[in-house]
Amino acid sequence: MRLACITVRDFRKLAGEWRIGPLAPGLTVIGGDNEEGKSTLLEAVKAGLFEHWKISGQQRQSLNPRGGGSPRIELVFELGGVDYELKKEFGRDCTLACSRGRWRGDEAEAELQRLLRFERRHGRGERRPQHQGLLALFWVDQGTSFLPDQLTSAIEAHRDRLRAALEREIETVVGGTRLAALRARIDKNYERFYTPKGQERAGKDDELAKLRRDVAALEAETERLRRVRTTYDEKIDALQRALEKLARARDRDVLVRAQARLDRAREARDRIERLEEQRERTRILVQKERSETERLEQAANQRAERRRRLARDEEELRKVERQREELEARIERAQQRCSNLDQDQIRLAEAAACALDRSERARAARELLEREERATRLRTALEEAECTAATLARRESERAAIRIDARNLALLRAAFDERERREAVLRAQATRIELFPEPGRSARTADGAPLDASRPLDLTAPTELILDGFGRIRISPGGDLAELERRREEASERFRALLDSLGFPDLQAAEAALQRRHDLDRELAGLQAKFDNLLKSIGAADCAAARKRLQAELDELERSRAALGAEAEVRNLERDVEAAAAEARAYQVRLNEVRAEATKAGEELAALREEDARLRGRHEELLNSVTALREAVLADEAEISEADLEAERRRAEERLANARALLGAIETELESLDPARVRAEERAAQDEIAKLKSEEAEAQREVDQLQGEVRGLGVEACDARLEELERRLDELRAQLAASEREARAWKLLRETLSEQERKLTSDLVEPLRQRFLPYLRKLFPDAEPLVDRQRLVPIGLQRGDAAERLEELSVGTREQLAILVRLALADLLREREGEAPCLLLDDALVFSDERRFARMKTILAGAAEQQQIVILTCRPRDWADLQAHRILLESCRVGA
Amino acid sequence: MVRFLHSSDWHLGCPYRQIPGDAGALLRERRLEAVREIAALARACAVDAVLVAGDVFDRQHVEEDLLRRTLEALAGFPGPWIFLPGNHDAALPESVWTRLERTRAGSSAELRVAARPEPIAIAEGRAWVLPAPLRARRTLADLSAWMDEAETPPGAIRIGLAHGLVEGLVPNGDEALNPIARDRAERARLEYLALGDRHGLLEVDPRTWYSGTPEPDHYRYREAGYVLLVEIDEPGASPRIEPIATARYVWEERELELPPQGPDELATRIAGLEHVLPEPLGRIVLRLTLSGAVDLRGRRAVEDALASLRAKLRHLELEDRLQLQPSEPDLARLDDGGLVGACARSLQERILRAPDEEERAVAALALRLLWREVEGLGTATERPG
């Protein structure tokens, strides 16, 4: 679009008629003072194009001039190679004419709207970018060019048109109604299965969820029915087993065979019971006959036994009487022997006592002599210990008197060395006088003492000398000899004080005393060891204890000596001690032998007496027994005779033999019948019959129960239902699988479409960037533009590693960037649509510094070669260096 | 002489789960109709008995209504019908047979369920049927072995009736369930051994036959759909056997590999099936396996052709292994140089490169959906501006 001429009459502050034009196809600078109406002129152009001629109310009033009148705007412009002339008088008329035709009123407004592609504002709504078409992006009001939102919202409003231009750039199609319809259909199908957040729809009526629920419900139901069928099959199997069991239980042959076995067993058992009864009776008879036989036999035996015992007792009685006679003689001899031995014991005991006494005295004498020897050793050791103790005490006393030790001696030596060092220092500083007197001459000290001229004289203090033939001479040594002297004296004083405190005349004496002290220490150690060994040999803790012990020994010795008598007797006794002991032991041995013999003889006598007593008792027993047996034998014979008793015994034995034979026959028969086996067979047969009957009853019960259960399950109905459900389940599963696949396909299709759209959108940004970059580089050589790939708007700059967002930049920079973006967009539109919109800037670049302003002017001048640029400015001089068509607003008033 | 019909494997109550809808219902109903036709045939041939060698019912728990309808279908021939329990309808303590027994009260036809291995006299004792019923669902024992020792009156014709697999019939087969000795007829001195279990007609030897099912029920058995009319003149005589066709529906199985051709050619290839299938098409149950690769337009043509074919057949079971390979014209049609084309190419890439078959299938479907939607919008892509 290119504006050719603008005529405004009675529009706000532009009272009267103003004609601005012709405008240049390139750069036009319209200058005017503040408040002169530059911005009103821009508003008038916008109103002429975008406000309906019929607007009323406040909107209309806002256009009215201050002095009253009807606002009128006439515009001549070129669009798409066609020249248009627009005349609009608000509230009255509107015409639009071009070579293609002429429109009036609303038709003219409609044609204008179609040409400029803007949305009509309705009512009192706020004016938005879309209400001014794409031109709103390029017509920048005063003080708004730097606002990012202004630019962004303008681009947003017309992004489709910009995008269309960009899309043509890469000859692709992203937008358009057809593609929108395709997207809508894909979205609609996608949303059948998924929520906008991509979650699978799980609502009650949602297709997949409903299918899944139906499938799950059918699966549960079919599973339940399968379980019923499985249960049925299991019960059928169980029924078959139960029937087989029942058949086995009802097997008649088995039962008949068992009953026959039972009958045979019972018959055998009856026979056995009868035999057992008879055996019991026979056993009683045998017992009875055996008792009678035994009784008779016992009676006969008792008689024989009594007679045998009588004969035996009579014989023994005689024998006992003979033994008693022999025993009495032996007792008498033994008594005599015991008496003799008693006498021997008395005599030997007396002799042994005498020998023992002698032996004791001899031993006591030996002990006395030994004690005397011990006492002597004790006394000697004690005396030596006491002597050692005395020496020890003296040495300790001597050592204690020596006051010097190693530390004291070291101090003393240090003091001595210090004194010697001070002396040497003093000597070194002394004034040396060497005299070389002429023969016969001498020298003396002031007090007249002669000086040895052969020896040099070291003076450390003023000294007066007398020289023969010369007189007195006073020599005063130089330097600080007095101080050295004082120090030497102090060292001497400290040395002397130490000597005095330790009590030594000199250092040598102190060293000798310390040596003596060391010698004494060694001697004391030796004496102490000797003393300790002596006490140890005595076995006492100290001398007093040793003394006490010696006294005890001496007392004991005294007592022993009093008991044993004279010294000579003691020596004799001591010599006989072995012989006396041997005699005493011999007597004792003999005495022990006699005592043993006497004891043995006494024991023999006691044994003889005991035997005598036993024989007496036995004799009496035998007498009684013989008497009683003789009486019993007589009584037996009187009761029954021997022959009768024997006959009766034989008869009883015969009856017993008969009964035993009968019992044997019975037991043989019983054994052949084997009662245990018969009873076991009977029990087994009974058990088998009972078991068979029980099994039959049990199997019958089981069969009845299972048959009831099987019929009660109603599996036929289940089965029919299961078949139906399984068919339905197959269908539903297939439907579900198809729906799931379809859902995934729609999702994939939608995602693929979005992904490709993102990729293409990204591609669209590049053309814009390519056109923006040259302009940008003229201002910022190293900068890269940052563009929102979705919204196609610049969002900042990348300079080096730093990304700066638009709102973070200075106002001036933002304004410059905003104008550059507009230039880039204009280039794009021009290239793709054949023409660029007119760029109209009202007081732009007022925030730019001079350097940038100059560059921007150059850029705008360059751009003006390709498109129309109109600059409204209150400072036209700033633009004077540009090659531009210049217009002063004040000169545009018609009739001025 | 004795004359009887030998049939087996009626599988009444077979659900045909793989065939949904009306086609499945018709096939289920057809099995009962086949029984009615066998009854009519028995009456027409004046046979002494009809021997059914097992698997009369598809399962033990068929519904009560089916039992009643079976009795109604059997009523066309007064009997005797001799039914051998097979592995599907074994003679269990409580079985479809015990239920049938309870249900049949009042039925006019003479039904004998050979639930025990005991000789059954037919034709007034001229012939004796030696049945080998299955009393469990499966067994490894040869239940027909008892026939060797079975006693029948002198001069009577011996007819074996068994259900299972003749040993050695399946080469290299594992140990078969319900086995039957191959020489059973000879060892048991049978004039004829009527067998069931195998759904196709088969002559094992001149005296041993499988009748097969009277109405085909699977693509596998092409020789199914017969009943055998058997005549035996006297003991020791060879049987005369006449297979009588009873099938109504034909189960066909075809594979079609479609080359990457234009849509018209593909449609023609599929439509060409109509000419190679037996008439009438309304009795064909077809399992069609499609393989090869087609483009988007070809896919549409194939689907249209299949829809047309499906409408003519009793049932079409489709194994669709067709791979979608969008052609350059496809993509050119989608690709107007813009977003749709880019999207189509991305999906095509996914179809070719996705490692998972399901992913490839989803991508193919997505491309087909895109195609459909773009087609639905019209041919030209509007350009804005």
Protein described:
The complex is a heterodimer of chains A (896) and B (385). Chain A is of the alpha+beta class and 896 residues long. Chain A has a domain at 401-538. Chain A has helices spanning 38-50, 57-63, 105-116, 135-138, 148-157, 159-169, 177-193, 207-249, 252-401, 406-429, 481-502, 507-538, 543-564, 567-639, 642-673, 675-712, 715-779, 811-833, 850-863; strands at 2-11, 14-20, 27-31, 72-79, 82-89, 93-98, 101-104, 139-140, 431-433, 443-445, 457-459, 463-467, 471-475, 783-788, 793-799, 802-805, 839-842, 869-873, 885-888. A 6-stranded antiparallel sheet of chain A has the order 2-1-4-5-6-7, with helices on one face. In chain A, strands 8-17-18-3-19 form a 5-stranded parallel sheet, sandwiched between helices. A 3-stranded antiparallel sheet of chain A has the order 10-12-13, with no helix packed on it. In chain A, helix 9 runs antiparallel to helix 14 (567-639). The longest helix of chain A is centred in the middle third of the chain and has 150 residues, at 252-401. The radius of gyration of chain A is 82 Å and the shape is flat. Residues 165-175 of chain A have low confidence and may be disordered. Chain B has 385 residues and is of the alpha/beta class. Chain B has 2 domains: 2-245, Purple Acid Phosphatase, chain A, domain 2 (4-Layer Sandwich); 250-377, no CATH class. In chain B, 31% of the residues lie in helices and 23% in strands. In chain B, helix 9 runs antiparallel to helix 10. The radius of gyration of chain B is 28 Å and the shape is elongated. The N and C termini of chain B lie far apart (97 Å). The chains are: A alpha+beta (896), B alpha/beta (385). At the A-B interface, helix 6, helix 7, helix 8, helix 16 and helix 17 of A face helix 9 and helix 10 of B.
